[in-house]
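Worked example (supplementary).
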Amino acid sequence: MKITLKVWRQKDAQSKGRFETYTLNNINEHMSFLEMFDVLNEELIQKKQEPVAFEHDCREGICGTCNMVINGQPHGPMRGTTTCQLHMRHFKDGDTIVVEPFRARSFPIIKDLVVDRSAFDRIIQAGGFISVNTGQAVDANAIPIPKEVAEAAFSAAACIGCGACVAACPNASAMLFVSAKAAHLNQLPQGKVEAKRRVQAMVKQMDAEGFGNCSNVTACEAECPKEISVVNIARLNREYFSSVVGSETVV
Amino acid sequence: MSWVTRFLTSSLGKKFVMSLTGLFLILFLVVHLAGNLKLLPAFAHDPADAPGMAFNEYAHFMTTFPPIKVISYGLYLFILIHAVQGWILWRQNATARGSIGYAVKNLRAVNTNARIAAGMGWLGTIIFVFIVLHLYQFWLQMKLGNLPMTDYGAGPIKDLYYIVAETYRNPVFVIIYAASMVVIGFHLWHGFQSAFQTLGLNHKKYTPAIQFVGKMYAVVVPLGFALIPILMYLQSLNA
Ligand code: SF4
Ligand code: FES
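After joint prediction of all chains, the assembly is encoded as:
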């Protein structure tokens, strides 16, 4: 396949970026999007040019680092797919593909397509954990959990923290991520005890990081590679209100 | 900061205020529409009544009955809060994207009304301008006493009907009004159901009903409002 790439190049956080155009003539349709970038970078290195910086780790859709916006869509055109799992067969021979970094004030660019998502880490540090000493692994059936609850918590726990929801949201809101993390922990017996404090602490940190306010556009769910549902956002809303207004918890 | 201030200035708290004031305004529109219908001869108590009698008597009641007066001050306040808060959220959201936006814009969403949702700030701005014009044309004239008086046998009352009928003799105002109702319809199409989602009321059993009622409301209520000046204009052509 012949592919023309327009890629955002930016030397570092301070410099101004711009699009560079590259043409790749020998792309195999079975390659993943990242493998195409590997080919591009090999060529650039041979020409003694700076390779394109992009993040990746697992390349199997579970780490959430391979972030780029492909033709205006975080993680590209396929639903429920990370960039590393996106294959070139979903593009046509001769296509021009525009690749940009995630754009959000809370995700500053480090270089080229790499952004700093440590805002998410700080939200997790604020409340995305349970404070119990685990000790030995307990028997899986020692705490009975209804199947529907386990399933709802698990589908929220599928969030890989990639940040595509923020990138896709016209308001750059982090509500889908925060609500997924809260819904994961708040529904299970081990997490429930701290739920009231957790929701207040995580929302407080989310606001402090400068993410936008959710206006229920639902672009986040459509672009989320794990297809996390906005139902979790409604859940976070009501848990937050009941915690702030209806409990004695103050964070 | 006390917990109340912290709540009201948090992103979720601001949205909470938006949805509650929005729902109040949604209720208000129904009352307002019921009142406006009295402008039409078809809704007069008695077809033999002078034109606008039912409307003028209703307007007199609404502006003099003390409990309604209190509610109306609440209403002005809620409109202001909804507008100012909405504007703040809109500006914050615009800056959250950062200084450089996307070169390729491609909005994909789960809700079919995502484009309306993303345009609520603009829609709201147009509605705000309309409300200012609307208040200037009728409410302010009434407050300043720039109205002729009329008497149906129970003492003189203000003839609000007269300036409404005069205004919608002019096709320009009819078009502005009808176009504003279309904008309000779009605003409600998203706003109605969005208010429930923001309050956390997303429920397998009820959300389909909420969405259905919201869409019906967003069509029927603005349409009802828009028809009134159109009919009054047509009437004025015959008169
Ligand atoms: S909710 Fe989805 S898009 Fe957002 S961080 Fe989690 S996996 Fe990524
Ligand atoms: S590289 Fe890990 S999710 Fe794509």
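Two points are worth noting when inspecting this output. Chain B touches chain A at residues 3, 6-7, 10-16, 89, 92-93, 95-111, 114, 117-118, 120, 190, 193-194, 197-202 (CB under 8 Å). The first helix of chain B runs from residue 3 to 9.
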